[in-house]
Amino acid sequence: TNVGTGYYSTTLGTYRVPVTGYYNIFANFEKLDVGFSCEKNGTQIFTNADTFFTITNWSIRTPNHNINNNFDTNTGIFTVPCDGYYQANANIRLDGLGSGYGRLIFSVDNDDNYESGSGHSVAHSNELANYHTMNLSQVIKLNKNQTLRVKAYSVNDNSFTAQNESTWSCHLIEQKSEFVLHKSTNSGLSYTDIKKAKNNLS
Q1: Mean pLDDT value across residues 45-60
Q2: pTM for the complete prediction?
Q3: Higher pLDDT, 21 or 97
Q4: 3-class DSSP assignment, residue 149
Q5: What does each C-alpha distance from 168 to 53, 65, 138, 148, 149 come to in angstroms?
Q6: How many whole angstroms separate alpha carbon 1 and alpha carbon 24?
Q7: Residue with more model confidence, 6 or 112
Q8: Which three-class secondary structure state does DSSP give residue 67?
């Protein structure tokens, strides 16, 4: 709402002050609600050793959720809607790790480097049971339009499976934001900074 002789342009986001003076400026920013929680839909068979496989086909059933549909349940890929720090968790049951060891990773942008720091779990196959529950929990800094997925690996087994007793989730815990207030004395030809605020506007 424009009051008095000052003018605010909703298209340019600029306000022309009517007189010289001191002004109180208020801005409210709402943190985005971003995240999902899902469970595995059926069994997925992997048929090559020494290969990382994306775990696909997930279900969103109560109390699970997929806020703003940033997570693709078919491909198992989460596309990041905004810069920030994300908490990711996964509990994956892998069957058929018969020799050697298996790995589970959070893969950023389809990267298979398990030493990248985005989250890594390893299990040895020398156990009496033919199944393993592998867990991941990691805070990851992600930028807008990056992708995140869960990948499974076996060093020696040409056939192993991800079972439906598996879940994973990812939620935004801190949004990276920047607010900059400018002023201009030449009708917008150039600006100087008045105030900057970063890191959740704190």
Answers
A1: 97
A2: 0.77
A3: 97
A4: strand
A5: 16, 11, 12, 11, 10
A6: 15
A7: 112
A8: strand
